[in-house]
Amino acid sequence: MNQLSTAQDRALGAFHGLALGDALGMPTQSLSREQIRARYGRIEGLIAADADQPIAPNMPAGAITDDTEQAILVGELLDAGQGRIEPAVLARSLIDWEAAMRAKGSQDLLGPSTKRAIEMILAGASPEQAGRFGTTNGAAMRIAPVGIAADVRDPERFMQQVLQACQVTHNTGLGIASAAAVAAVVSAGINGDNLASALDSGIAAARQGQQLGHWVAGGDIAARIEWTARLCADAAPEALPDLIYEVIGTSVASQESVVAAFALARAVANDQLAPYQALCMAASLGGDTDTIAAVLGAMLGAAFGLDAWPREALAQVCTVSQIDLAPLTHRLLALRTL
């Protein structure tokens, strides 16, 4: 396989991995680890949501959530802007997206940081000011298209593109660092790096991102990713879920959910888990499972390509959710050469 086709395969693996992880975590999102155990045991494939699922009641097996929908939105804006996202345009697109979700009765709406930022913009705040309180994982969950379109080997341009995608809702060191970390892993994987090397690129990007935006109190993303690598290094696979859930955390906070995804990715890099096994484990953790699995899927897909994922499951997600990610992925990849 030549270098171009390898990049295409890994870019497709990243975007489809995001969607697959999102769909795997859809029925378990916002449930506790104990609730998931009682209802499902362990997630081992795509399942439908129960009628009392707090965010996605009665959603069919293979349905995506806001993670993938907003990643597609970011990808389309990148494509339309030839690699540039205007913060005000992103804000308006997110407002329109939530209105469409409400119109069809969906409970899958904007997250807390994004919601607060949009309300500030509607009240007259600038996009730069609106995101000054955003510390949750909303920017990281939709950042994968930036990793496809931007080359981390050009760090100044790469960080500028990350910032454009974060600023309007997550203009804080924590929000930008977590998004930069995920985008860098995706970008490095598409460049041909192995997973361990790509994860190291993510740590370096998190350090850069932490210096941008407004300061807010919270655990340093890069330091926490490095800490989790040591924490989980000697853990048996069956011990990882409880360790992540109880010690790292699985809430919407960037320093928990994004770091939890990195912990599982490092376990794959250490040959403790296979990629799809890790994705199912993410969906079984409890907490913000759809986002943890979506972020993890994007990073692993970029390192291993489409073959990391069961083709039948990918087909089900695309059919049920009525998405075709390939054309947009190819256009995003072409932006790297501009």
Automatic annotation (TrEMBL):
<keyword id="KW-0479">Metal-binding</keyword>
<dbReference type="InterPro" id="IPR050792">
    <property type="entry name" value="ADP-ribosylglycohydrolase"/>
</dbReference>
<dbReference type="InterPro" id="IPR005502">
    <property type="entry name" value="Ribosyl_crysJ1"/>
</dbReference>
<dbReference type="Pfam" id="PF03747">
    <property type="entry name" value="ADP_ribosyl_GH"/>
</dbReference>
<keyword id="KW-0460">Magnesium</keyword>
<dbReference type="InterPro" id="IPR036705">
    <property type="entry name" value="Ribosyl_crysJ1_sf"/>
</dbReference>
<keyword id="KW-0378">Hydrolase</keyword>
<feature type="binding site">
    <location>
        <position position="67"/>
    </location>
    <ligand>
        <name>Mg(2+)</name>
    </ligand>
</feature>
<protein>
    <submittedName>
        <fullName>ADP-ribosylglycohydrolase</fullName>
    </submittedName>
</protein>
<comment type="similarity">
    <text>Belongs to the ADP-ribosylglycohydrolase family.</text>
</comment>
<feature type="binding site">
    <location>
        <position position="288"/>
    </location>
    <ligand>
        <name>Mg(2+)</name>
    </ligand>
</feature>
<feature type="binding site">
    <location>
        <position position="291"/>
    </location>
    <ligand>
        <name>Mg(2+)</name>
    </ligand>
</feature>
<feature type="binding site">
    <location>
        <position position="290"/>
    </location>
    <ligand>
        <name>Mg(2+)</name>
    </ligand>
</feature>
<dbReference type="GO" id="GO:0016787">
    <property type="term" value="F:hydrolase activity"/>
</dbReference>
<dbReference type="GO" id="GO:0046872">
    <property type="term" value="F:metal ion binding"/>
</dbReference>
<feature type="binding site">
    <location>
        <position position="66"/>
    </location>
    <ligand>
        <name>Mg(2+)</name>
    </ligand>
</feature>
<feature type="binding site">
    <location>
        <position position="65"/>
    </location>
    <ligand>
        <name>Mg(2+)</name>
    </ligand>
</feature>
